[in-house]
Amino acid sequence: MRQHVNPLSSNFNQIERIPSLSEMFGNSKSNLHLDIGCAAGEFLFDLALVNTSWNYLGIEIREKLVKNAKLKVLEREIKNLYFIFGNANNILNDVQSKFIISNLKSLSFNFPDPWFKKRHNKRRVIQPEFINILSNSLQKGTLIFIKTDVKDLFDYMDYTISSNFYFKKIDKKDFNYSESFNPNQVKTNREKYVIVNQLDIFERIYIKN
Ligand SMILES: C[S@@+](CC[C@H](N)C(=O)[O-])C[C@H]1O[C@@H](n2cnc3c(N)ncnc32)[C@H](O)[C@@H]1O
User: Active-site residue among 35, 113, 149, 158?
Assistant: First the structure.
């Protein structure tokens, strides 16, 4: 069992400089998807190698994973994939990175750390202030995807996002994945584990109005 990283630790107050879109990607005009808490990034590698007309950005708080993922990107010369190390909340709250949020077509929170104890709920990546920042800077039509195997966490995330006036739920039945960041419905590592172990998956898609 891995030790969870405490995102509220002062270690994460310093954030790395976020490069411009043209420094990060070969084609800065491609649709941009952000995956928050991307771990080693396997999910994003799978997506980026197949969907070359999208750019993929991952944010992860475990530094070693990001270092390794960045090396892999360089070795394989992948031009539509970039990784940023740090606490997503601090990175995206920063004025310098507002341009990332305003350029996103979609973002995903796949199986975020649940932080079960009530006194640790503040460590969850989805917080009302964070959703407010997103609602202020995301373009109309941007999609948010959430997925988890923890019902309590799902209810909390759903309540937090739905409480923001600008986000509306989309019925999964009406959603056309073929035009999304994940046309082939590739699974994340945690999702594969959850499927093999026949656990429940709770998911929802929201659109910014
Ligand atoms: C349970 S793992 C899920 C990994 C992957 N998304 C998946 O579905 O397989 C949650 C990941 O989120 C990262 N994480 C947790 N809080 C974070 C934060 N505030 N900012 C960035 N990453 C975070 C953790 O380090 C961990 O890699």
Answer: 113
